[in-house]
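User: My instructor asked us to take a sequence, write out its structure as tokens, and then describe one feature of it. I'm not sure where to start. Here is the sequence I was given:
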Amino acid sequence: MAAVAAAIPLVGPCWFGRAQADIASLTRFRAIRAGTQIGEHTINFRMDGDRLTVETHVDIVVKVLVFTVFRFKHEAKEIWQSGRLVSVNSTTDDDGTPLQVSGGAVAGGFRIVGADGPFLAAPTLMTSNTLWDRRIVLEDRMLDSQHGGEIGLVTKQLADEQVDPPRGPVRASCYQMITPHYAGRLFYDADGRWVKALLELKGEGIEYALAS
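Assistant: Let's start with the prediction itself. The structure tokens for your sequence are:
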């Protein structure tokens, strides 16, 4: 595991390795089901010194004919400092079920509050939103940014595949991921950037195709 960790960049876009302040960038995926776009997943990064603000926006609607059969909307703001999570706040509409999560770093851990109340987690955990950071494939636990608390995950490296993002085809590392709420495959290019996903959510197969 140590050898694998040494080969993986600290963060997908190498945010924590940059010395420049006030860096801003946007990553946007189109969510596609059966060849039709059904929503978007965007991640906005803003760097100021060693402090990284990450805003995640997910809006997915699955329809059959004119009927909405599933809706998922998620808004989250995370603040990271020197590579560790400092705070998280999120709201989610999980097919009509409203969810809210908040949390912050405290002495000896990270206190996160969700539907089941407060939970004190380890101070170094990543969140279920942090698919943009390739280090997630080394983890077996993470903070649940939709429901609160802590959940497990299982990952396995698969064979590399070619991915075709807007800037041109790349050879990408592929990882199978299983969590209590979703599963699928994640793809990262040679620089550790998240470039594609094939996810299973609520029984639906959804492709994340990089748009920007």
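For the description part of your assignment, you could build on this observation: The longest strand covers residues 67-81. Try explaining in your own words what that tells you about the chain.
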